[in-house]
Design goal:
nine-stranded antiparallel sheet, 275 residues, Multidrug-efflux Transporter 1 Regulator Bmrr, Chain A, 8 helices, GyrI-like, DNA binding, AraC_E-bd, single chain, 25% strand, Multidrug-efflux Transporter Regulator, Chain: A, Domain 2
């Protein structure tokens, strides 16, 4: 058995660190002597070596706790290290994407001056249609998770482009989304809704490019609606004319999305509201 000072020396962990790890419940002394002093054994030593390794690889205390509670040997450790490696690679990819955006935003970059596309605004009457759909709460990017199951349910009855209905008036991290695929007739499938989507009058435009810039298209639609004394109502609609595939995302610059916002005549003209 080792006293805390001796244990600190053989593990290269400070006494302060050992006490902290005890508080966190990841490295507690196996015994205490009659005076209450901490005593560590060889099993504690092996755990301390594991903790030191993980800390050196930038594992957080929460991650270390998770590893220790599920650790059964070197084979298990290999899985944890591979998962950590994948997380780091994902983070690096995110940082590289951010660096690219920063470079584009610098003077002389492709995004310098915030030059945006021109949007042609049209009023469209949308007819009633039958759709298979699934409604969920989540991130906007979660849409891709459900598209495959909808097309499987629709089978050879699917036609036209998939689209999303957004029921929130504001931007949300847990958006209320209904993903739809138009079909030629009623379809029955477990976990999938099939219903008639009523027609409506909409204000519409086409956005060419990635989904991260859809806000510019929405602004153009809202500005145009108010100029025409039209009241936007939900749900808005995003029709994916050309987007990522089921496996590969492709070049976002080539995406084509039609945005539609249902509208109705304002009871009081916008000019009078401002006055």
């Amino acid at each position: 058995m080792y006293k805390i000072g001796e244990f600190s020396k053989i593990t290269s962990l400070t006494i302060k660190a050992l006490r902290y790890y005890e508080e966190q419940g990841i490295l507690c002394p196996s015994e205490r002597d009659k005076n209450g002093y901490r005593l560590y054994n060889d099993q504690d030593y092996e755990r301390a070596r594991l903790i030191a390794l993980l800390r050196g690889l930038d594992f957080s205390i929460m991650e270390i706790r998770d590893v220790i509670s599920n650790y059964g040997g070197e084979e298990d450790l290999s899985y944890f290290l591979k998962e950590k490696q994948a997380q780091i690679l994902e983070r690096i990819a995110g940082e590289k994407a951010l660096l690219k955006k920063l470079e584009e935003a610098l003077p002389g970059g492709s995004a310098a001056g915030i030059i945006r596309q021109e949007y042609d605004i049209v009023i469209k009457e949308i007819e009633e249609m039958i759709v298979v759909s699934t409604r969920f709460r989540g991130a906007y990017s979660d849409v891709g998770k459900y598209i495959g199951s909808l097309y499987k349910a629709a089978g050879n009855k699917s036609f036209g482009c998939p689209f999303s209905l957004y029921y929130d008036e504001e931007y949300r991290e847990d958006a209320d989304v209904e993903l739809c695929v138009p079909v030629k007739g009623m379809v029955q499938a477990s976990g999938i809704s099939c219903r008639k989507l009523p027609g409506c009058r909409t204000i519409s435009t086409i956005h060419k490019g990635g989904y991260d810039e859809l806000g510019f298209a929405y602004k153009a639609l809202l500005d145009a609606a108010y100029e025409r004394n039209l009241q936007p109502v939900s749900p808005s609609r995003e029709i994916y004319r050309k987007g990522p595939g089921l496996i590969f995302r492709g070049n976002p610059s080539n995406y084509v999305t039609e945005l539609m916002i249902p509208v109705r005549e304002m009871d009081i003209p916008m000019q009078e509201q401002k006055g």
